[in-house]
Structure formats: structure tokens, C-alpha cells
Design a protein that fits this description.
Length: 107
């Protein structure tokens, strides 16, 4: 799998609950339509391990079969629609991409 990982924090004038509900509901609609999307895991961040890790609300891992499939999704109209849905939201984010290696498999 090739993953797009997004760590995000809400705008200052939103509550944590508003942001998570938006991410998992309204913003999910255009994301589900991404071509080649194989898996999407979303984590609502409820605790931070130390002060350096505080201030984040959620983490998404969008998985594709390959970097080429992810690149095609990022070039699609569906991605443009997802980006437009975010609009000029004033929150923070980190977006990174890379190859997944399963270190412990599901049983």
C-alpha cells in the first residue's frame, strides 16, 4: 500500500466535536469517491503523549495500491472536489506520503 497520511487540527473557532463530525460526515462524502482508494482509516485524537504532541484533532490514512494510483487520485476531479470542500479552513495540517510495511498483521 501507498499511503497519504493527514494529521489535522481544527480552526480555533471550532470545537473538537464539530471538527471530527465535519471530517467524518460532510468531508467524508467527496473523499469516499477518490479513484483507487482502497482503505481509509480515521483516528479521532483524544490524548497526546506529552506536551510536544498536543494540539491535534485527527489523523487520516488514505491507502492506495501504489504511488501511481495515489498520484492519479490526487490529479482527479474527485480530489479537487475534496480540496474545495476544505476551502479556506484555518486549521493546521501535516500531509505526508509513503510506502506501508505491515509490521504486525491482524490475526
Amino acid at each position: 500500500m501507498y499511503n497519504l497520511i493527514v494529521l489535522a487540527a481544527r480552526p480555533r473557532d471550532w470545537t473538537h466535536e464539530q471538527f471530527i463530525n465535519w471530517w467524518r460526515d460532510d468531508h467524508a462524502d467527496p473523499t469516499y469517491k477518490l479513484p483507487g482508494l482502497r482503505r481509509w482509516h480515521h483516528t479521532e485524537i483524544l490524548e497526546a503523549m506529552g506536551e510536544k504532541s498536543e494540539g491535534w484533532d485527527g489523523l487520516s490514512v488514505l491507502s492506495f495500491d501504489s504511488k501511481e494510483d495515489m498520484d492519479a487520485a490526487l490529479a482527479s476531479q474527485e480530489w479537487a472536489d475534496a480540496v474545495a470542500d476544505v476551502g479556506d479552513m484555518r486549521g493546521r495540517r501535516i500531509a505526508i506520503m509513503g510506502e506501508e510495511k505491515v509490521m504486525v498483521a491482524d490475526e
